[in-house]
């Protein structure tokens, strides 16, 4: 009898412990490989690390140097421009395509993968093709002129002030289809009865979307913006493949800046400092979202 | 502190290397992945295999070795360094300073490397007087490549002075050609810059300004003239230059769209590959005004610390095979560069390479041989890239020549 | 299609419909342009690529570039083509996707159905980990792999990809399971079903759609990764992307653009296939959970 009870007791305890046991490898991995490495990076940013990590304390010198570098300012400004446009345009195109595709379109099964496929390709694959397409002498401009539109000009990629916008174009190309899928999923999740009721009340299509559908898509908007924001901050391959940071250093972004200082310029300390700033920016953007996410689920 | 860091992990690495590869294998990290280069390297591989030394290939291309250097850092940090790594200039010295490199003194002494390798190159292949790497080749970047048919068509001869060069470019432009084929990437602008500094002030000025970073040279009128010449060149470049790969610029010269290109001697491979004959279809000559001096960059295989006697032996055999005249000839004929030793028979090379070898011997004897700033033989990475920023910003019109002089002097932390 | 019945109830006229189709097709063309550039140039001889109009269709059609990219192009010292690296990628991707998806499912299950103190904080930390820029972890990760003896091996790469994918997979499954009625789990518990039994019998059977999302996401990211592959792989474990990079990014050699493009498409085929085959389930999976926040 007593034996039986203790066995049951053990089983309950095991059942209580199991969930935590299952979660523990993930938690351990996070503590070491994410937060441990972040602490390491923060530490490096205060040292005189050059080619390899060094542990000679330097204080805030790296941060002072970093904010004194013109290229860093360019990178930060570019990120602001790039992220705003990229998130804005992707959301707009994604939403538009999703709404249009949601009108009982014949051939949706063909169109949808066409919109989605760019997400499947890395810029190592598409970089050269984009570079050629945007190059005035090889791509769009040349083709248009050969087709007889002599005055057609599209030379943004060669223009210091405009090159960052070509980065936006390629980035939008890559992810807007994915955003479309997220909105489409959101639209398909909306109860048709609500729409029908509104239509009976005489609402026009426009006001139907503005007043009812788009507000109902709030969760999709939130997810889209978060995913896009994180892709914007991480954007690296894109710039390297498309412009290599040029013309001059006009299209440098924080991620390319950090890589080049850490790995090609042997200034690991400054690179780490820029990484810390990036992480702080991400934290500032993400914390409200994570907080809201957790609150809602309570 | 840093040295300890590397050593600690080198030991761990040696343990792992023993399980990963046979002691008599060499693992080689390099970025020679294009057809001709890789085929040339295969000569070395087969040579070693005939001595029953296995070759574990670890190619990582991209950014003129930048990607490979990142890989190397990860490998060394993991305690798993390759046996030999393709490297340029100051990178070798930086790794030597970390205490990560081995020692080739025995084989170097036995084969008399001191006598055949040009002294300026030895400065990069040795650290603290010890041989640490084996130089494979010598490239030079103050070359001009010209389409002979285009020159004949517009009625100009090979230019020998800067003024003749400008006149030739003007004639080409007037004839509706692109005068100068150029790819607007920072490193390509730096290649042009190297050549122009030589053409303005010769090797002594180059050395004072770009190597010794003397303020008197960096802020001189001659440096102002350098940037003015860059502006002149800028006016002869077509408007789509920005971001173009160097080999697309070469094909513009090859197919007669453009008259000239200023580019290192690897450009020759593009011409040869297109079936063009040096001296007949295209001309190779030094940037006008820089005749007699040359910038160099040398690919080397830096040898990393290995522990076992067998591995050391394999490493020494690899170094010996690299320096062997037969490999030097076979490799450099394909690569467009010239041998890293000055005692090789020139007659088997084409006329551009023959000129390169003659120039090397002459420049080496007369103090005209200087390390290329564009390719990591002028300054360590941090300063080199700071200089890149200025030159490319100026070329793209961000500031004028006078401002560029000041910016460059600041970027190179002139003394 | 099965989701068609859920299409919007909005009614539109003929002219509007024509405009809609036009806009949709215009966008489809926009999305296709880079692929078209790659495909048409991969089917031309090199001289036509460098000499002619890069936007034009081939005048001479040839698949030589494709054959070269697959089996004879120079990746390193030996002219192996991309073929051998394909297997390396598969060996890395399959376990990494499987492990990260299974762990993500279990994590999501724990975080929604077996709530405990601080579970929200754990999830918050996991979520933030999705946003770490990968460049900063290269050096410390290399060191950890060295200590664990996994440097330059496929298991090492799998570990790295699992670790940095867990945040995403957990996020997907957690949001999906959050919508699943907890009462069913409690009822099963009262009937005496244990932790794994409930997961196996109740949660897994309904997890199809979100598993598709997780698999597609992980597969694409891991297959396309270059940074980790270049840093942590050895010659025996070098993935496809690193080989492709060696093919297209050589710096001072002759560039065979047609071979580059053919190689690029070859390297992308698996991910393209996944998107085309699983694409429709993808939208359904997103619909089923992850975008509902």
| Total strands of chain B | 15
Question: Please, how many helices of chain A?
Answer: 13
* Morphology of chain A: flat
User: In one word, what is the shape of chain B?
Assistant: globular
- Remind me, CATH topology of chain A? MetI-like fold
Q: Gyration radius of chain A, to the nearest Å?
A: 25 Å
SS-based class of chain B = alpha/beta
Estimated radius of gyration of chain B: 22 Å
Name of the top-level CATH class of the largest domain in chain B: Alpha Beta
Gross CATH architecture of chain A: Orthogonal Bundle
**Number of domains in the coordinates of chain B?**
2
Helix share of residues of chain A? over 70%
Indicate the mean pLDDT of chain A.
84
Please, what is the average pLDDT of chain B? 88
Q: Largest beta sheet of chain A, briefly?
A: none
Largest interface: A-C, 109 and 101 residues
What is the fold's blueprint, element by element?
The complex is a heterotrimer of chains A (298), B (415) and C (293).
Chain A: H1 2-44, H2 61-68, H3 70-101, H4 108-116, H5 123-134, H6 140-146, H7 163-188, H8 192-200, H9 205-216, H10 218-234, H11 237-242, H12 254-264, H13 268-297
Helix pairs in contact in A: 1-13, 2-13, 3-7, 3-10, 4-7, 7-10, 8-9, 10-13, 12-13
Chain B: H1 2-20, E1 25-30, H2 35-50, E2 54-59, H3 66-77, E3 84-88, H4 89-97, H5 105-111, H6 113-116, H7 119-125, E4 126-127, E5 130-131, E6 133-135, E7 137-138, E8 143-147, H8 148-154, H9 162-174, E9 178-180, H10 186-211, H11 215-218, H12 221-235, H13 246-254, E10 258-262, H14 267-273, E11 282-286, E12 294-296, E13 299-303, H15 309-323, H16 325-335, E14 338-339, H17 351-366, E15 369-371, H18 381-395, H19 401-411
Parallel strand pairs in B: 1-2, 1-3, 9-10, 12-15
Antiparallel strand pairs in B: 3-13, 4-5, 6-13, 7-14, 8-10, 8-11
Helix pairs in contact in B: 2-16, 5-15, 10-12, 10-18, 12-19, 18-19
Chain C: H1 14-42, H2 46-51, H3 64-72, H4 83-113, H5 119-129, H6 138-148, H7 154-178, H8 182-190, H9 195-203, H10 208-224, H11 227-232, H12 240-248, H13 257-288
């Amino acid at each position: 009898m007593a034996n039986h009870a203790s066995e049951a007791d053990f089983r309950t305890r095991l059942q209580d412990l199991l969930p935590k046991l299952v979660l523990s490898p993930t938690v351990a991995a996070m503590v070491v490989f994410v937060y441990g490495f972040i602490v390491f990076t923060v530490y490096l940013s205060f040292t005189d690390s050059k080619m390899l990590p060094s542990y000679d304390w330097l204080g805030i010198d790296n941060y002072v140097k970093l904010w004194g570098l013109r290229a860093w300012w360019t990178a930060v400004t570019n990120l602001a421009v790039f992220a705003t446009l990229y998130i804005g345009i992707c959301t707009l195109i994604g939403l538009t395509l999703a709404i249009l595709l949601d009108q009982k379109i014949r051939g949706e099964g063909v169109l949808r993968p066409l919109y989605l496929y760019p997400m499947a390709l890395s810029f190592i694959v598409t970089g050269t093709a984009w570079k050629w397409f945007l190059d005035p002498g090889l791509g769009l401009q040349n083709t248009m002129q050969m087709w007889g539109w002599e005055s057609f000009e599209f030379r943004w990629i060669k223009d210091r002030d405009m090159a960052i916008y070509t980065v936006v174009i390629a980035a939008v190309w890559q992810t807007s289809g994915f955003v479309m899928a997220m909105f489409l999923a959101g639209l398909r999740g909306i109860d048709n009865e609500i729409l029908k009721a509104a239509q009976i009340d005489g609402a026009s299509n426009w006001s139907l979307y503005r007043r009812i559908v788009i507000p109902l898509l709030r969760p999709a908007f939130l997810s889209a913006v978060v995913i896009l924001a994180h892709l914007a901050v991480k954007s690296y391959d894109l710039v390297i493949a498309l412009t290599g940071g040029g013309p001059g250093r006009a299209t440098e972004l924080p991620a390319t800046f950090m890589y080049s200082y850490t790995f090609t310029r042997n200034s690991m300390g400054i690179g780490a400092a820029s990484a810390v700033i990036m992480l702080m920016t991400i934290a500032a953007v993400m914390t409200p979202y994570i907080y809201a996410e957790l609150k809602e689920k309570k | 502190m840093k040295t300890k860091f590397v050593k600690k992990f080198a030991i761990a690495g040696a343990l792992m290397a023993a399980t990963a590869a046979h002691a008599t294998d060499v693992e080689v990290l390099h970025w020679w992945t294009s057809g001709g280069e890789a085929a040339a390297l295969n000569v070395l591989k087969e040579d070693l295999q005939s001595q029953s030394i296995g070759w574990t290939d670890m190619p990582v291309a991209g950014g003129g070795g930048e990607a490979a250097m990142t890989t190397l850092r990860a490998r060394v940090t993991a305690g798993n360094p390759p046996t030999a790594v393709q490297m340029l200039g100051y990178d070798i010295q930086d790794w030597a300073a970390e205490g990560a490199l081995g020692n080739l003194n025995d084989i170097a002494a036995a084969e008399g490397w001191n006598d055949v390798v040009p002294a300026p190159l030895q400065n990069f292949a040795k650290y603290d007087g010890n041989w640490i790497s084996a130089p494979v080749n010598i490239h030079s970047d103050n070359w001009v490549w010209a389409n002979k048919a285009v020159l004949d068509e517009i009625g100009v001869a090979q230019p020998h002075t800067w003024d003749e060069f400008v006149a030739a470019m003007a004639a080409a432009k007037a004839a509706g050609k692109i005068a100068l084929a150029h790819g607007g990437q920072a490193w390509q602008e730096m290649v042009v810059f190297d050549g122009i500094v030589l053409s303005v002030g010769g090797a002594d000025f180059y050395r004072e300004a770009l190597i010794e970073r003397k303020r008197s040279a960096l802020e001189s009128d001659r440096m102002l003239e350098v940037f003015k010449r860059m502006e002149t060149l800028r006016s002869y470049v077509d408007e789509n230059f920005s971001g173009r790969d160097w080999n697309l610029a070469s094909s513009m010269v090859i197919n007669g769209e453009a008259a000239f290109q200023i580019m290192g001697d690897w450009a020759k491979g593009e011409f040869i590959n297109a079936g063009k004959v040096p001296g007949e279809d295209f001309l190779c000559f030094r940037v006008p005004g820089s005749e007699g001096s040359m910038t160099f960059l040398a690919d080397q295989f830096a040898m990393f610390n290995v522990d076992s006697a067998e591995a050391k032996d394999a490493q020494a055999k690899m170094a010996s095979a690299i320096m062997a005249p037969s490999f030097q000839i076979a490799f450099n004929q394909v690569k467009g560069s010239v041998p890293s030793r000055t005692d090789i028979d020139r007659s088997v090379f084409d006329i551009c390479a023959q000129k390169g070898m003659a120039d090397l011997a002459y420049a080496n004897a007369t103090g005209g041989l200087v390390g290329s700033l564009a390719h990591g033989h002028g300054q360590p990475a941090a300063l080199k890239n700071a200089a890149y920023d200025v030159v490319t910003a100026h070329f793209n019109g961000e500031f004028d020549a006078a401002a560029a002089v000041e910016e460059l002097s600041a970027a190179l932390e002139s003394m | 299609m099965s989701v068609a019945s859920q299409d919007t109830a909005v009614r539109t006229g003929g002219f509007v419909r024509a405009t809609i189709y036009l806009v949709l097709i215009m966008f489809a063309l926009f999305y296709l342009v880079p692929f078209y550039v790659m495909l048409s140039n991969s089917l031309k001889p090199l001289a036509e690529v460098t000499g002619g109009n890069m936007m034009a269709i081939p005048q001479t059609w040839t698949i030589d570039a494709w054959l070269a990219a697959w089996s004879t192009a120079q990746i390193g010292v030996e002219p192996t083509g991309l073929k051998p690296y394909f297997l390396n990628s598969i060996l890395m991707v399959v376990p990494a996707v499987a492990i990260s998806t299974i762990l993500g499912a279990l994590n999501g299950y724990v975080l929604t159905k077996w709530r405990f103190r601080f579970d929200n904080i754990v999830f918050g930390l996991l979520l933030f980990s999705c946003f770490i820029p990968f460049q900063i972890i290269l050096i410390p990760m290399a060191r950890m792999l060295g200590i664990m003896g996994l440097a330059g091996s496929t298991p090492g790469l799998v570990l790295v990809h699992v670790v940095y994918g867990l945040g995403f997979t957990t996020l997907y499954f957690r949001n999906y399971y959050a919508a699943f009625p907890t009462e069913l789990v409690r009822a099963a518990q009262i009937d005496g079903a244990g932790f794994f039994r409930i997961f196996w019998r109740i949660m897994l059977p309904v997890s199809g759609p979100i598993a598709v999302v997780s698999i597609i996401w992980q597969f694409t990211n891991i297959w396309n990764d270059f940074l980790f592959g270049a840093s942590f792989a050895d010659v025996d474990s070098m993935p496809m992307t690193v080989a492709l990079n060696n093919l297209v990014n050589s710096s001072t050699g002759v560039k065979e653009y047609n071979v580059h493009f053919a190689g690029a498409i070859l390297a992308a085929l698996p991910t393209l296939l996944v998107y085309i085959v699983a694409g429709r389930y993808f939208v359904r999976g997103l619909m089923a959970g992850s975008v509902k926040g």
